[in-house]
Design goal:
The complex is a heterodimer of chains A (about 325) and B (about 325).
Chain A (H helix, E strand, L loop, with lengths): L14 H4 L2 H8 L5 H11 L1 H18 L1 H4 L29 E2 L2 E2 H37 L1 H16 L2 H9 L7 H10 L3 H14 L3 H8 L4 H9 L4 H24 L11 H8 L8 H28 L9
Antiparallel strand pairs in A: 1-2
Helix pairs in contact in A: 3-15, 4-6, 4-15, 6-7, 6-9, 6-10, 6-13, 6-14, 6-15, 8-9, 11-12, 13-14, 13-15, 14-15
Chain B lengths: L1 H27 L6 H5 L5 H11 L5 H12 L13 H36 L4 H15 L2 H19 L29 H39 L2 H8 L4 H38 L5 H10 L3 H29 L2 H4 L1
Classes of the chains: A mainly alpha (about 325), B mainly alpha (about 325).
Chain lengths: ~325, ~325
């Protein structure tokens, strides 16, 4: 996992020596835009690239797959005449086998789709909330900061899976969207802290002072001047939030406190299949495997993005 | 240091009070505890009203909160919907969970920090590459997958393989053998049999928790250690001619400890969450079970107590983190 450090950064470890590096760069390295270097660094992170490809395939599997697959998730299959007990085992016809008359491949496709859908809603809402709170706290400092950060501390005291489960109990009808919103509402605090830190340091920079001196308003400074500079941490945290949300949702549904039928998710399929984990393993292990795959790929992508956005971390990265 | 401690403790009291308000709001919105009674046909109105009165549902929410808080500060957390004392139930399950979580935390901190420090000292060696890769994989895997794999794939097969399928050596269900120590089996009541019984039950859940949490500690310790190893004062220490061992232990590691200590205690809240799943997989009757049951059956007092106890645990461990940080780094105490 450990990348060799970039060529032009391997030698000077201390801050004083590092300031010499840009001067050398002017004539040894051709000029690249920041985005170009970021993309370049990301494409050189091999696990992240492989994971990106796998993740795109997973998305296709979840969102496009069901329209092409010959079995529907709710289609009950009959045991063919003359077949032996092995007919439920994985085969070319049913790659993940059959459980209780259902084609597990179709079930897992639909579950993955719901899981990713929930995770995307959670990520958009929680990152939005976190960036908003963090930006305001970090930019205005003082009393605003104190109030918002004490509120963040308070939200961190309540175990968030339990809080979401408690609220989710009362939801009737379609449950997945509510679950996603609850997870987002109790899951923005980490990002808010990171963004606050970024804002606290960036607001003291010269370009912010320059913007303020020409009379830019607070919203303009926040959105046009500082926020674009925090895009790196935002993207990294959003990526990791997708993985966290998939796992949180799976955990809740596994406990029987998450989505309810007619909705489904990987966690829900695992919950239904867990009592037969040893006797009819198909329904249990395939979604578990899918869960691992999503979590691993997203963590690798997040790792690669972190390296790409913040090469300084390379030296001390875990 | 004493003033620092006192101030920190005083600050956490309003935090706990606010947390109890949030918990109360959550519990009120969990659902109607007597929904069954209301939806059942032919239940006389008087019965419903009586039950409402028993549970205090006929009073306004604020009054209910104040009544609850007034009793709670005296240690009375009320009765469950089955009319059993809440505190007995919660304290018993907290004991079960804490046994698991504390043991698992200690092991994973020791293992994680040790691995992290070694891989930082031997950066880019085969050990470092192996440990970093392994830690990353374990860090990314869901608890659910690790626990289920250990239980169904490894433990059950292992027990069968050593020929103890019926009386497994590594227990996969529950936190202790039911009716283990009774009058008919007095030989089981000694210290050694009960410890062995606990260990054979706790082995798998502990292993699960250790596997998922040590990886995080290893990653953080490695990062913290690398940072201090590259610091100027470590170079100075080497330049003075100190032995490498002394440089690493006294100069680099002591300073890395400050970062590690905060992460360790802040993770405790997350560990309780992880323990809910682990307990469910291995069917332990701990806090996880209490949470799931109190939500499923909509048991307001039980759920409130659950939230309260976990909030206290999180706050206490945050305090411990602060104290550890202040103890290890005197600069913190000044602000």
């Amino acid at each position: 996992m450990q990348l060799p450090p970039d060529d032009d950064e391997s030698s000077p470890p201390s801050g004083a020596a590092a300031s010499l590096v840009p001067a050398e760069r002017e004539f040894t390295v051709e000029q690249r835009s920041q985005w170009k270097t970021t993309v370049h660094r990301f494409t050189r992170h091999r696990p992240a690239m492989v994971s990106s490809v796998v993740f795109v395939l997973l998305m296709l599997f979840a969102f496009v797959g069901p329209s092409f697959w010959k079995y529907r998730f709710d289609q009950v299959l009959k045991k063919p005449a003359g077949a032996n007990a092995d007919w439920i085992r994985p085969s070319w016809e049913h790659p993940f086998g059959i459980s209780k008359g259902y084609d597990v491949f179709a079930q897992v496709m639909r579950g993955t789709q719901y899981s990713i859908r929930i995770a995307l809603v959670v990520t958009v809402v929680s990152v939005g909330l976190g960036v908003f709170v963090g930006a305001i706290a970090g930019y205005f400092r003082g009393f605003t900061d104190a109030v918002l950060m004490r509120f963040t501390d308070l939200m961190l005291v309540i175990p968030y899976l339990a809080a979401v489960a408690a609220l989710q109990r009362n939801v009737k009808g379609s449950t997945w969207l509510w679950l996603a919103l609850f997870l987002a509402f109790f899951g923005w605090m980490g990002i808010a802290r990171v963004i606050r830190g970024e804002f606290l340091s960036l607001r003291e920079k010269e370009f912010v002072e320059a913007a303020r001196s020409v009379g830019a308003s607070a919203p303009r400074i926040i959105f046009r001047h500082i926020l674009p500079n925090t895009l790196g941490p935002i993207i990294v945290n959003a990526t990791l939030a997708v993985g966290g949300a998939v796992l949180a949702e799976a955990a809740l549904s596994f406990l029987g406190l998450g989505v309810k039928p007619p909705d489904t998710s990987l966690g829900k399929i695992i919950e239904v299949g867990k009592s037969k984990a040893t006797t009819y393993p198909n329904e249990f292990w395939w979604p578990v495997l899918m869960l691992c795959l999503i979590s691993l790929t997203i963590n690798f992508i997040g790792d690669g993005l972190r390296d790409a956005f913040d090469p300084k971390q390379n030296r001390v990265r875990a | 240091m004493l003033f620092f401690v006192i101030r920190r403790v005083l600050v956490s009291i309003p935090l706990l009070l606010l947390a109890s308000i949030v918990a109360f709001i959550l519990v009120v919105n969990t659902g109607d505890p007597i929904e069954d009674l209301r939806t059942k046909p032919n239940v006389p109105k008087a019965t419903i009203a009586l039950r409402e009165h028993q549970l205090g549902l006929d009073k306004p929410v604020v009054e209910r909160y104040v009544t609850w808080l007034g009793k709670a500060v005296h240690g009375d957390f009320g009765k469950t919907i089955k009319n059993k004392p809440v505190w007995a139930e919660v304290s018993r399950s907290m004991g079960v969970t804490l046994r698991l979580v504390l043991f698992a935390s200690i092991v994973s901190i020791l293992v994680g920090v040790l691995i992290g420090v070694i891989s930082a000292v031997k950066q880019y060696s085969w050990f470092d590459h192996g440990a970093t890769t392994g830690a990353f994989l374990l860090y990314s895997l869901p608890v659910l997958a690790v626990g289920s794999f250990l239980k169904y794939v490894l433990a059950i097969r292992f027990n069968r393989w050593i020929g103890r399928g019926d009386n497994p050596l590594i227990k996969t269900i529950g936190e202790s053998t039911p009716n283990f120590c009774t009058k008919s089996k007095p030989y089981n009541c000694g210290f050694i049999p009960s410890v062995t019984d606990f260990l054979s039950h706790a082995f798998l859940p502990m292993l699960t928790l250790v596997l998922i949490s040590f990886a995080g500690y290893a990653r953080f310790s490695r990062a913290a250690m690398l940072e201090t190893l590259n610091a100027d004062y470590v170079r100075t220490a080497r330049a003075k001619g100190l032995s490498e061992r002394r440089v690493i232990v006294k100069h680099a590691f002591r300073n890395a400890l400050t970062t590690i200590a905060t992460i360790v205690s802040l993770d405790f809240g997350a560990l309780i969450g992880g323990a809910i799943l682990t307990e469910t997989i291995f069917e332990w009757h701990g806090m996880g079970r209490v949470l799931v049951e109190s939500i499923n059956k909509i048991d307001p007092n039980l759920l409130l107590c659950w939230f309260f106890v976990t909030a206290v645990a999180v706050i206490v461990f945050n305090l411990v983190a602060d104290f550890a940080y202040a103890f290890l780094d005197p600069r913190i105490r000044l602000d």
